[in-house]
Design brief:
Elements lengths: L1 H5 L5 E4 L1 H10 L3 E4 L5 H9 L4 E6 L5 H8 E9 L9 H6 L2 E4 L4 H5 L3 H16 L7 E7 L3 H10 L5 E5 L1
Parallel strand pairs: 1-2, 3-4, 4-5, 6-7
C-alpha cells in the first residue's frame, strides 16, 4: 500500500473493523470493508464495474479467487501466498497476468542477486526519505511464545507485522 502510494498509484485496500479501516486510511489509501460490501459492489463503486488494473494479494488461499474477481480485464494480480491448488479459469477468462512474489528466491538460488540488491537499495532510499513506515502489531512476543505469535498472526486480529523478540 505504502509502496504503491510512493509511486503515485491510487490505492484501495480491503480490511474490516474500525482499527483496520483507520490504518488503511492513515496510509493514504481508500478503505474497503470487505464484510460490509461484496466484491461486485465495491468494484462497481470504485471502478464503474471495470475492475482494478493491479491487485496485490497478501492473504492467499481462497482470497486469490476474490482477487481475480476484483481485477479488470487484462489486469495484473500479484500474490505472496500460493501454496494451494486453485482453478485458474477465472484468471484465464479475464486474461489476467498472475505474478507470484517470493523475494527470498534470488538469495536461495544465487540468481539475480544484483537486481534484488538494487530493488532493496531503492526501498532503503524510500525508507530514509520517510515514504515507508513499518506497521508493527501492538503485541510483541518472546521466542518462548512463538506459538502464540503464530496464533495471533493467523487469527486475523494482528494489524501489521507480528514481532518475536529473540
Amino acid at each position: 500500500m505504502q509502496l504503491a502510494r510512493a509511486f503515485g498509484a491510487d490505492v484501495f485496500a480491503t480490511g474490516t473493523g474500525a482499527a483496520q479501516i483507520s490504518v488503511i486510511e492513515g496510509f493514504g489509501a481508500t478503505a474497503i470493508d470487505f464484510r460490509e460490501e461484496t466484491i461486485d459492489d465495491y468494484v462497481a463503486r470504485h471502478t464503474g464495474g471495470a475492475g482494478f488494473d493491479v491487485v496485490f494479494d497478501t492473504v492467499g488461499g481462497a482470497n486469490l479467487t476474490n482477487s481475480f474477481a476484483a481485477a479488470a480485464l487484462n489486469a495484473h494480480v500479484a500474490t505472496t501466498v500460493t501454496l494451494l491448488e486453485l482453478d485458474l479459469a477465472p484468471a484465464h477468462l479475464k486474461g489476467l497476468s498472475l505474478h507470484v512474489v517470493f523475494m527470498l528466491i534470488p538469495m536461495l538460488h544465487d540468481v539475480g542477486r544484483a537486481e534484488h540488491g538494487a530493488i532493496l537499495a531503492k526501498l532503503a532510499h524510500l525508507v530514509d526519505a520517510g515514504s515507508l513506515k513499518p506497521l508493527v502489531d501492538d503485541q510483541a512476543f518472546g521466542l518462548e511464545d512463538a506459538g502464540a505469535a503464530y496464533a495471533r498472526l493467523t487469527s486475523g486480529q494482528a494489524i501489521g507485522k507480528v514481532v518475536i523478540d529473540v
